[in-house]
């Protein structure tokens, strides 16, 4: 996002007079920041998407994850991050530090949203099949 494009970028989410427009823009830009600044996949799970109640963006955690999953390799990055986090390079305390992410996934599973496909998105994930 460039300062000279700010008005145009935010207008693409709707009328700037409404809070929902700003929330949609926030979630998209937060997801974009997490995606573009991801140097290590484990940090994505343990830091960027590790939403805890004391974080300022906690109430938007589901929308931010939905936006992140819109990236074609977003789910793959999360998978890699989990594999790294559960490798022998990390101890149980370091894994526990990612509890915010695990709670987010648990909330989504309980609410029927899941993590495989963002809410409202259609299509399939590469490598999956439907039961016949």
Distance between the termini: 44 Å
Determine the fraction of residues in helical runs and give it as a percent range. 40-55%
Shape: globular
- Helical stretch tally: 7
Give the helices and strands as they follow along the chain: HHHHHHH
| Strand content range | under 5%
Radius of gyration, CA atoms, in whole angstroms: 16 Å
In short:
This protein is mainly alpha-helical and 132 residues long. It has helices at residues 6-11, 19-36, 41-48, 61-68, 74-85, 92-96, 99-110.
Protein model, in words:
- With 132 residues, the chain is mainly alpha-helical.
- It contains 7 helices and no strands.
- It is globular, with a radius of gyration of 16 Å.
- The model is unreliable at 117-132 (pLDDT under 50).
Helix and strand arrangement:
Blueprint: H1 6-11, H2 19-36, H3 41-48, H4 61-68, H5 74-85, H6 92-96, H7 99-110
Helix pairs in contact: 2-4, 3-5
Considering the chains and any ligands shown, give keywords for the structure.
52% helix, 132 residues, disordered C terminus, mainly alpha, globular
């Amino acid at each position: 996002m460039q300062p000279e494009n700010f008005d145009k970028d935010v207008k693409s989410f709707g009328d700037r007079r409404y809070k929902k427009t700003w929330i949609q823009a926030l979630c998209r830009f937060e997801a974009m920041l997490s995606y573009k600044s991801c140097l290590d996949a484990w940090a994505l799970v343990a830091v960027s998407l590790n939403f805890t109640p004391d974080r300022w963006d906690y109430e938007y955690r589901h929308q931010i994850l939905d936006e992140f999953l819109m990236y074609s390799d977003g789910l793959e990055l999360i998978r890699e991050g989990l594999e790294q986090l559960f490798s022998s390079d990390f101890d149980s305390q370091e894994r526990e530090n990612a509890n915010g992410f695990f709670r987010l996934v648990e909330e989504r599973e309980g609410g029927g949203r899941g993590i495989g496909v963002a809410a409202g998105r259609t299509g399939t994930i590469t490598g999956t099949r439907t039961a016949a």
